[in-house]
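Morning, I've got a small favour to ask if you have a moment. Here's the protein in full, and shout if anything looks odd to you:
***
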Amino acid sequence: VDQVANLTLVSSACDIVSTAYVSTKESHPCIRSVCDAAEKGVKSVTEATASCVQPVLATLESHVAAVSEYTSKGLDKLGENLPLLQKPVDQIISDTKEVVSSRAADAKDAVSS
C-alpha cells in the first residue's frame, strides 16, 4: 500500500482530491456536517475492524509477507513499463492537452491543404 501511495501519479491525485474535499467542506456547512458524520463512522468501523483482524493477520504474517514481496516486485515492473505512473496529474493533463492541440492543428492543416 505504501509503495502504491508513493507513486507520483497516485500521491498527486490524492493531494488533488484531498484539497477539493477540504475546500468543499469549508465552503458548504451542510456538506461539512455530512462529511464529519461520515468521517466519524469510518473511524469507528476502522478501529473495530482493526481489533478483530489483528489476530488473523498475526497468524497469516508469513503469507502476507510473501504476497507483499511478490506485489512489490510487480509494482516495480509496472513502474518500469508505465512511466506515466511517475508523473504528477497536472503534468499528465498538460501533456495530454499539448498532444490533443498538436493533433488538432495537424488535422486542421491537413483539411486546409
Summary: Residues 1-81 form one domain.
